[in-house]
Amino acid sequence: MIYTKDISKSYSGTQVLKIDELEIPKGQSFGLVGNNGAGKTTYFSLLLDLINPSTGTITNNSVVVSQSEDWKPFTSAFIDETFLIGYLTPEEYFYFIGDLRGQNKADVDKLTAKFEDFFNGEIIGKKKYLRDLSKGNQKKAGIVAALIGNPEVIILDEPFANLDPTTQIRLKQILKDLAEKQGVTVLVSSHDLLHVTDVCERIVVLEKGEVVKDLETNPTTLRELEAHFTKSAVSVSEEEE
Amino acid sequence: MIKHFLNLEWKQYFRSSYWQKNLALNILLVFFALYMIGIFVFLGIFLFKILSKMFPEQDPFVVANSFIFFWILGEIGMRFFLQKLPVMSVKPLLTLPIKRSTIVNFVLGKSALSFFNFFPLFLTIPFGISLLNNGYSASVVLTWLATMFLISLIANFLNFILEAFSAERELSFLPLIILVGGLYALNYFEIISFQEIVGNGILAITKNPIYLLIPFVVLVALYTFNYSILRKKLFLDASLKTKVKDVNTSDLAWTKRFGDIAPFMQLDLKLIWRNKRTKSMALLMVIGLLYGLFFYPQPMYRDMEFMWAFIGIFSTGFFLINFGQFIPAWDSGYYKMLMSQNIKYEQYLRSKFILMVMSVVIMFVLGIPYLYFGYKILIAHAAAAVYNIGVNSHVILWGGSYNRKKIELDKKAAFNYQGTGAVQWLIGIPLMALPMALFGLLNWLINFEVAIAILVIMGVIGILLHKKLMTFITQKYLDSKYKMIAAFGKDS
Predict the structure, then answer these.
(1) Which residues pair with B79 in a beta bridge?
(2) I need a labelling partner for A48 at 20 to 30 A (CA). Which of A74, A173, B71, B161 fits?
(3) Site from A58, A99, A135, A137 to mutate, B interface, most B CB atoms within 10 angstroms
(4) In terms of DSSP bridges, do strands A185-190 and A75-78 run parallel, antiparallel, or are they unpaired?
(5) Residue whose C-alpha is closest to residue B391's, from B308, B316, B291, B329
(6) pLDDT number for residue B19
(7) Which string of b and e fits A187-202 if b means at least 16 CB within 10 Å?
(8) Nearest residue on chain B to A131, alpha-carbon basis
(9) pLDDT tens for residues B205-242?
């Protein structure tokens, strides 16, 4: 589904991302972990053609993203709050996204109705603009908007951050269902190792812009990841001494 | 403490991406300022001679003072449009061990150093010197200069109070119009002759410098009032309390007839109506519409035919220019999202185009009563409207592809008097000056009919080439896509 070849991104000589080859098959739930500055958001931005790659290409369902816009109809994303339009109510925002993705109001209503408990009664019918919602509720609206129009690829950057524990658990269930039952390719990034190991079949660890680990999730993965990040914490403190 | 603040200011100014990218515009502004200084100095030097020629019977100094009332009104008006309260990002400072009063005093104190306060000195000092040369005593001249400087500072702080009122209550220009218009009217109809009061007051001060205390007390009072306004705003929730209003939604079903661009049109209409900044711009259209009334009732302007084209372009294109020059920055807050969505750039731009065209048509239709001042004026307005639709709309969309400045629509009201700055007015000049010059020249060289025809023909050519032009403009936007995304992601 998504094939990354020789991609790199540098800002005035400093390389922030370099991936030689990475293939994500259709229907996989894919997790990206790494410390701050590891290149997670950079990779997602390249995938969405929001920044220009220094070298290489990313192919999404055989469309080269930096050359054609044909990947847009089947790809959706929520990267951060700047994806929201502050002066719309959540419903209006969903309808707007629906319009762009060829869904009428009834389709959108049907979809959002399924997320009633995820919204916890705080989003729909509240007569509030998105800009007046709390960060957590904004995030919920953004994530659900990314599910409108049956996309085949869903990209979520740090979806668990800012959410309350109940919502985190519900979101994990939603994401699992998408990949397992509907064959959607789900890409998430997170700082929370526990959540990604729960949701993703495959986890890739980025460090300073490069892939350092590529794991199939199994019961020992969490421990392995924790060991990896503990080691780097230890090695840093040793360097400091 | 002040040292730290100054350091922060310095960095904020020179590290802002806006400053670095708009060097050319800054240079233009500097030239504009130099030009104004030149005019002021010139006027200051020759004012004494001019006044003694025009009013040979009277003491030029007394005559000059009798005009100071109008000077003050003009100054307040100018400041309201051009000067903004120096903004300081206070939020990060609130939790630090800094007294709130220190922050407020710094912000206000900094405004006293504004260029606007020193600007009048370029006129008053040369005038003062010419007074000395004509035998006025040094004490009178010095007291007069001090009074004038105090008046500038009073106007400075008065302006911030006006701005605070208009920003808080969404009244836009109302406070200014009431104050300036009211005082002017009271004076004009000789109900209260402020002209005399101010003139005599200043003369009294120059005779007896102890009266300088009066403007000084006024200044202190205004400063204290400003202080109390700002002090109240220095809490995070101060700007939140009025915010959560129920939203009334309308589905804008009539936009559906525009087909595939309907979602964008709905979005644009909501954008305009639901954000403070765009809303006051929309309300300003009334002023744009009535703009002709400033000129046409006076025969002097009515006979200046080249003005017709200018007023026509301005009044029918008011929305076009004000809205258009910030395309696509209006959408800068969520530009990344738009770019990753399933949209065609061309639809996005066409929606803006149609909105602008509609505004031109509506403004023209509403302006039909100008017929009262002569059918030729209406014809000139119609030609200007066609020119706006065919030429200016495309030019401004094209210009938008060079837009790299983010607009924060949901900026809180506190410490933010985001309004019409000098920059905005400068951008409008080529759009209005070019057709005006063209019309004026042809009208002068050949005749009225040819001048009208040329404006119309240019407009029609633009309309005929619409598809081609849009393809070209769309390509421009596509070319600068990454740059725009990067720029809109940054804080200015």
Answers:
(1) none
(2) A173
(3) A99
(4) unpaired
(5) B316
(6) 54
(7) bbbbbebebbbbbbbb
(8) B410
(9) 888 888 889 899 999 999 999 888 888 777 655 544 44
- Residues, chain A: 241
Taking only residues 1 to 30 of chain A, the set having a beta carbon closer than 8 angstroms to any beta carbon of chain B reads: none
Q: Which residues share a beta bridge with A91?
A: none
Three-state DSSP class for residue A147: coil
β-bridge partners, A205: A33, A213
Phi/psi at A199 (5° precision):
-90, -40
Find, among A207, A214, A233, A189, the residue nearest to A15 by Cα. Answer: A207
Q: Among all chains, which residue has been given the structure tokens 């995070």?
A: B236
The alpha-carbon gap from B346 to the nearest alpha carbon of chain A, in Å, equals 13
pTM: 0.70
Tokens at A55, concatenated: 């070298």
Which residue in A207, A208, A201 sits closest to A179, CA to CA? A201
Locus of tokens 């220190």: B102
Give the rounded distance of the alpha carbon of B475 from its chain centre. 32
Residue A236's pLDDT is what?
A: 59
Contact criterion met (CB below 8 Å) for B380 and B452: yes
β-pairing, A75-78 vs A153-157, is parallel
Q: Are A220 and A197 in contact (CB under 8 A)?
A: no
A145: nearest Cα among A65, A71, A82, A83: A83
Q: Would the pLDDT of A159 be above 60?
A: yes
Select from B443, B292, B316, B437 the least CA-distant residue to B371: B292
- Which of B270, B227, B222 minimizes the C-alpha distance to B102? B227
